[in-house]
Amino acid sequence: MLETSPKFKVGLVQMTSGTVVSDNVNDAQALIREAAAAGAEFILTPEMTTLLELNSAKARDKIKVEDEDTSWPYFAALAAELGIWLMIGSIAIRMGDKAANRCYLFSPEGRKVVSYDKIHMFDVDVPGDKKYQESKSYRAGNKAVVVPTPFGKVGLSICYDVRFPYLYRALAQAGAEILTVPAAFTYVTGKAHWHTLLRARAIENGAFVFAPAQVGDHADGRKTFGHSLVVDPWGNILADGKDKRGIIIADIDMSLVAKARNQIASLTHDKNIAIQSLI
To answer: In the chain, how long is the greatest CA-to-CA distance?
Structure first.
């Protein structure tokens, strides 16, 4: 039985990952240490923490199967060294001829508590930007994940998942009080939708949202939006990373989850709707 901490500090890492895995690991660990020194007990990094590489052929040479990847054991050891809960937003893990976009959660003992593979693939032609075909290189996950922690039950997701409200509804109805959304949102779509989507997921489900993000101009040519966010269950933004590399820290009071859900008990009001189509 986990001892609970109704109040704690969360730290989000905002970084600009490139195409060299070792450089990204070094940058992430420096920012994780900074967040831990600032008192964060639960620290999260963005999607694709260890590699952001649009060229699928070049990326393939740098992606390892889980047993051969050295980055996640390094982060597990770092969590133990610092005595923190650590979520690595995602690491590309080879799965046959494709890869998984895999999130990891580590305990303060350095134990791999759970992993989650991104379910929704970003296959989008962004107006004014690039065409992205994530499914060409990545295999979609098929299992949603809710995990108990001392801070509350955490529901895992990654980036493009945020556009699918049913996933977060399912997570919340399975008990999730914190929803995590590590991301590498494009600048174009982020500017248009990022804040609105994350606040909506928090409000709809009466849950905290922790969303660490990639930011800036990357070595592979893409530009990401940044603005790592901590959002409370009423939709208030507690911290915003804006457009610079670094960390954000926020004080979390988990009693706000029950307060929001008691004020608007929509999680208990869902209906099965029959649709009459006149098309």
So the answer is: 61
